[in-house]
Amino acid sequence: MDWIFRTAEELRIALRAGDVSSVELTDEAIARIERHDAAINAICEPDFDRARAAARDADRARARGEDRPLLGIPVTVKESYDIAGLPTTWGMPQHRDHLPAEDAVQVSRLRAAGAVILGKTNVPLGLQDVQSFNEIHGTTNNPWDHGRTSGGSSGGSAAALASGFGALSIGSDLAGSLRTPAHFCGVYAHKPTLALAPIRGMVPPLTPALPTDHDLAVVGPMARSARDLALLLDVMAGPDPLTFGVAHALTLPPARHERLGDFRVLVLDEHPFIPTGSAVRAGVNRVVDALVDGGARVERHSPLLPDLAEAALLYTQLLFSGAVARFPVEADEQLRSQAAALSADDRSLNAARLRGMVLSHRDWIEANNRRELHRHGWRRLFTEFDAVLCPITPTPAFPHDHHPDPRQRRLDIDGVAYPYFDQLVWAGVATMPGLPATAIPAGRSPEGLPVGVQLIGPAFEDRTPLRLAELLEERIGGFQPPR
Questions:
Q1: Which NCBIfam families match (predicted)?
Q2: Domain check: are 229 and 373 in the same one?
């Protein structure tokens, strides 16, 4: 039997019933990678010998009566996570030989849950792009169209899942890095509530793997079904044992509703800074039709919605203030000169990026205070709604564009060119206030490319958008293998 595109939940059932062994699943996954990954380039650091050993251990453990959440299931891991014995480079050529001594906390959790790690998946340089390419490992192609990007920065993981290279993967998200690749490749991803899952050990090379807090950034699950997202999130979530885990245990509240007809959903398909392309708008409307047909209450406007323009500017400043932390002094001085030349009434995204790059600590605190006001606004909105449905980016996957200066790249939206980085504003809707967001497939574009949308939920109520994703998967269908 071909197990390649089965969900992790289906594989769990089959493993428990003795219908298949972990060794068989692992060998099948490895064989598929060896046959097909030359064209996709998703797996940048294979770890097949240890994977086969782990699969044998999993089968022996099951024979002894053990049953862990992911026991014997083949998975992949984003390159940016430390795995002892494999390079962690973040795509940086100067670190191509960096070998961490310890596993990241999330890798340790995968192993403890019984997962079989096949290897690492490709990323962009420094994780700072909407595409996945670097000098060390080359370009990851979209499984649906090799001339297009798989997304970034978890693009290797999304491409691996869509190609049948393992049942699950773990990635990270700062500017849509889980959600955008899922949208581009037709799979599922979940950006957890900020700080829900510890990030220790997913750090740039030579950076100590400490249990520090990260502004905006999260780690999270990727899968080929909504139920699998929930399964993997349960493995990943919970405080770091070196800090809050000393005293705290995590208990996520259940989903607000179990029936589609009980959900209250606010729909957004227009953003003040960038238009929504026709293919993505059609995907949003396809999900809206399913919600309405299922009896959900759907609204397209609410006075409780925090201002999207102000939110986008705030998100952009916070995002780029962190992106330049290691810039050389001379570059910082040049940026400060450019920012000083901006008009005081320039409220463009480009100005926000530049101001963010030179943000003082005092200004950052003020920006953070404004963020708290937005967070409170979202709390109020979620007293009236259970989820917000909106795009992830304005377009399906776009053609590879490796211009060395991303500021010179342009995104084509229905024949009109827009600045490349402007597409990040939809990701920021959930990221800036730290809300959970689940990316789900929502059909195909006229060219046959996957289109996804995101379901944003209340903070620390991750099970609510995940449950809504499950119910929608039943109505509109989910992952389909590339043709």
A1: PRK06170.1
A2: no
